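Long-time lurker. I teach an intro course on protein structure, and each term I like to show students one example going from raw sequence to a predicted 3D structure in token notation. This year I'd like something fresh instead of my usual example. Would anyone be willing to generate the tokens for the chain below so I can use it in lecture? Attribution to the forum is fine with me.
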Amino acid sequence: MHLKIHHSLLTAAFLLLSSFPLSAQDYGVSGFMPAFFPQMKASLSWPEAWGNSPEKDFGTWKVRARGIVLECMENIPPAPDEFGMAVTASEQRDGYTARKIEFNLSAWYRVPAYLLVPDGEGPFPAVLVLHDHGAHFTIGKEKLVRPFGVSPEVQEDALQWVEKCYDGVFVGDFLAQHGYVVLAVDALYWGDRGRLEGADYDVQQALASNLLQMGGSWGGIITADDMRSTDFLASLDCVDTARIGCLGFSMGAYRSWMLAAVSSRIAASASVCWMNTTEHLMTMTNNQNKGGSAYSMIVPGLRRYMDYPHTAVLACPRPVLFFNGSQDKLFPVEGVEDAYDILRKAWEDNNAEDRLVTRIWDEKHFFNRQMQEEVLGFFRRWL
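-- Reply from a regular --
Happy to contribute to a lecture. Here you go:
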């Protein structure tokens, strides 16, 4: 009885306090954030996440949740009638051939790419390698595949970038040497798909805004292009269609787990240095709040339904690998741990714990050689 009276008094006090009008604020924005961002963030309940959704059958939930993601990605360019691949140059390397190719990525555009094919008789397992952001737009696919037939400036640009981010290794070539067909394609605004007038960091905002005004989104188009690149890989005679994986670092890691979430063609995915939660990314100090680069990884409206790790759960129960660094200033460790807990729960619910690899390395935002060897071991097991 006393508890009921106490609860009633608390409720009455809350109602009394909430009836008073809010005081007018002297500002509406602080830094890059709305003054009410804590309330807005707290209102996110992730109603379509696995475990929160009213749908309790995992297979049925996946169909429903994937449909939500794809709907939020609209309006995406239409698929091509045919890929129409053409080889424009080739170079024999140690155990594989590097080819420069072109193919239709959509009905609206044709793109150049690098295709690495191991020596010998296929079909081979394949990996779509997805380049990072890095606020460095002059190269894209060349961050992962050693370029040829390009200017000395592009060669040097690529060499410097792999030293900075990949421990001096062209990861695509590394995989090709170990028997994988590798495809590397520029995302929109990088490399050969860059800006006619030259790269400019601030143009990202305008590009993203213009796409939104036409009913699309930069992030949605990047993911859709990655889906089409996977379809292209599956069309090649040299590729075993049941053994296609994807790999990326930084923005490439986001692209990798996002692709695995929306494409059933991906048999295994590896994502290095991009996983967290909105709770820990949407703060006054995190780099994610500055706009610009963030637009390349935003699907409009999706946060109304599920958070980043909830979306990644759509790949379950397929094999996935997530690496993060304890010294990575872009992705707070607390958020990484929270995200890993969400992932772990989903794979456990599906009796697939052995197919989930999560690890926090004593490392900064960097894809080192030991990580690369472990990713190779992961693909050897699952592809």
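Some talking points for your students: The mean pLDDT is 94. The longest strand covers residues 239-249.
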